[in-house]
Give the backbone structure.
Amino acid sequence: MIQVKNVSKKYGEKNILDNVSVTFPKGKITCLVGGNGTGKSTLLSIISRLVSRDQGEINLVNQEIVNFKNRDFAKRLSILKQANHPNVRLTVKELVAFGRFPHSQGRLTHQDQEKIQESLVFMGLVDIQDQYIDELSGGQKQRTFLAMVLAQDTDYILLDEPLNNLDMKHSVEIMKILRVLADEYGKTIIIVVHDINYASSYADYIAAVKDHKIIHFGPTDEIIREDIMKEVFDIDMTIVDNCNNKVCIYFK
Amino acid sequence: MIRILLVLMLLILSFLSLFVGVKDISIFDIHQLDKDELLVIFVSRIPRMVAVLIAGVGMSISGLIVQQISLNKFVSPTTMGTLDACKMGILFSMILFPGSGMITKMVLSFVIALAASMLFLNISSKIKMRSLIFIPLVGIVFGNILSAISTFFAYKYNLVQNMEGWLIGDFSAIIKGNYEVLYLGIPIVFMSYLYANKFTIVGLGHETATSLGLNAKRVTYLGLGFVAITSTVVVLTAGVIPFLGLIVPNIVSLIFGDNLKKTIGLTALIGAIFLLICDLISRTLIAPYEIPIGLTVSIIGGIIFLVLILKRAKHV
């Protein structure tokens, strides 16, 4: 469980997060949705200690996150930021292996090797595991970085727009994998997505962000409503029930 | 396999370098050297060979480290002002503490080099345009500013000729007794190897490194410390050897990738071989005179650098 209490963040005079409080439930997928520049990414960065906050409290399993040692924190929580990864010449397998760094500090054990192999299989990267990542397509590269996060094997996984660069097939595959991670491995996943239908189809909870605040938080079913969608995204949507699965239609 | 070949090559070249020079010592006389010849070998030839080896290894690894830290393949002690800062440090120690020894020069030069590297990294992290070529250009401008300041003071205190001495790298003056600070570079090489994984992770970006539980700042400063020490001792003994830290790591990266645990040894080997070859060329081309090695490296390195830019540019 991650508890965020009254967290605020300003860049200069500009409010990025305004007194945000939210609790992300354990073992579930929570999607952060909302327009550009509303502070979703910053919230993820603050929770993962990449960015400092101006005020407020954040607890990970009832312990304030600043009190964790770097290495211990990295064993519990991992984050993958929006894809602008540097052009490094590491092979797919080498990069994924660095996901084990918090556990083994570079001296890979038998168990590490198994985790690495498992992640490669999970992400369908076995065939290209010896290729350099600077020679891959955007989607393959994104999946490689996701595999690294999987190999890190943390209870909490934060993903900032992981579906960028991915085609529909791979996007759906990633979301299914995340479902498996939550349902079978009990991972807590917080993810920023832009297409509301990925959230409505795969998330357990949705947190809707607008004007630097979380204006709605609740089970997916309760949030996917025409009036709430209008309030969050400022566009009219028709919501269709497709066998227990709501789909928002917003192309007109 | 490649490693064995490179090691063999290094051994042969090192051995060869003992028998090149003004005093004619033939390889075939090795079992019957007279007293004079032994003196030359122990006082001049071996120190020179060792100096070339350490400088070659040290500057190449320094380049590799700063390229990881700055996430830019074209940053190196030459293109980020570190070498100019070293010169500045030596000059200032001559002005402030005239007649002072090697240690004073070394300490002041190290401090200024470290401060300058940190300042450069700070400036470059604030630049929005993160193009592969732009950052090193800023570094070159930065280095030139440092150099201009040094030149100003050098004129004022009549030390211009002294300055020129370290401007172009030259191993010809190295003899037993004046190059030993270079040995400080050896532990740095081993430390770099121990930190290889951490430098690789820092090269993945600040955010990824932090997510993997690494204190990226600490590793960055440590790396800059390594580079400042190595640059200082090399400039102090041999002078500025440009391009080495730029081209050697780039060639290794293109062929063998960026996993430092795998490539740091190769970088060291190739750096040493490259500098030995340049040194041999410098000593034989206009024998019995010598071309300063800085010049040889500049010409050969400049050409390779151009080829690299064209090759790397495709990946940007």
Notes: Chain A has a mean pLDDT of 89. Chain A touches chain B at residues 45, 48-50, 70-75, 78-81, 85-91, 94-95, 98-99, 101-102, 105-106, 132, 134, 149, 152 (CB under 8 Å). The first helix of chain A runs from residue 40 to 47. The CA atoms of residues 121 and 143 of chain A lie 11 Å apart.
